[in-house]
Amino acid sequence: MALSRRKKIAFAFVATGLSLFLVSLAMLAADLLLHFRAERSAGLNRHGYRGPVVGAKADRELRIVMLGGSTVFGYGVGWNESIPFVLETKLRERVQRPVRVINLGFNNEGAFAFLPNLEDFEHLDYDIVVLYEGYNDLPGDDDVNRAVYRRNSMIYRLTGYYPILPLYLEEKAKMLRYGNDLNVAYEADRRQERGDNTVVFNPGLAQRTSAGVMEAIAAMTKALDGQLVERQRSRAGLPESQSALGCKYPHVTYCDSVAAAVRFARGKGKRVVVVSQPRLPGPRSFEFHTSQHAELAGLMSRVFGNDRGVIWADLSNLLDLKDPDITFDAMHLNPQSNAKVAAALVEPVLAVEKTLGVDE
Q1: Helix, strand, or coil here: 66?
Q2: Bond from prior residue into 250 cis (ω within 30 degrees of 0)
Q3: Cβ atoms < 10 Å from Cβ of 154
């Protein structure tokens, strides 16, 4: 018996819907598998942060989130060699209750991303926020870094699930085009987008000999200095600006972004540690970083100086980033140096931890 036209159409819709459902289910399974493999290596878990997925908050648990760019993420090292992981280990030796430090770092994000990420991960019910970024904001008001990469995903914005399969497939395609060398592929893309002076960091440098690392540090320092000078020249003739918080060009947006994140966290009753990173070694990058450091110091004193729930941790002189025993590219640290940064953050974190539960 022949099917009526209406039944044929209904059958086609059902078959198409079922096919789409099965394909989506297969893609989700593949995505979950990739997350499972990547969350303990160089990737992100299904919620978009590095390391294993954190479960429900334990009774009396002290929960900390650390935000920043690739230096927080742990570019070039394992997830369990990053600053947040080591900080958690060291705090457990000092705190008589469960401690969790969650790594919310994302490569190339600057201070502008602090507030969106604090909003997006508020469900983690964190107690303390550690803000650790300045390098990705050195171009300052000349070229403001407004990247919030997780929000580029509509699925993440709608559901909180961060898909990794599209990135995986994109990188596979890049490797096919560039002879299985993903670093070369990304370098080519970045140069095409932003010009030949764009600095490209290579995690493979971590495996080089001491002499090779010294050469890499010199090359990266020179490239970063040139990039900063070029961006400053592009601003020539434009009026300088000053924020309502008292910060001056070229760090107005940086200061405003840090202040917005601190105010959000404090408005939710959280404690905050704002960190100045170790200074970069190049003459021009050192100059830019020093002026950024001065503006941040002024901001912390003027705006948050009387707030016991906010501490500024100045690590600008903690490490010499010209030393190949510390860094493999003049910015990103080896595991031992990440441990030094983590150790330096223990006391500031404990200081704000003592104010938790204290009426303000």
Answers
A1: strand
A2: yes
A3: 9
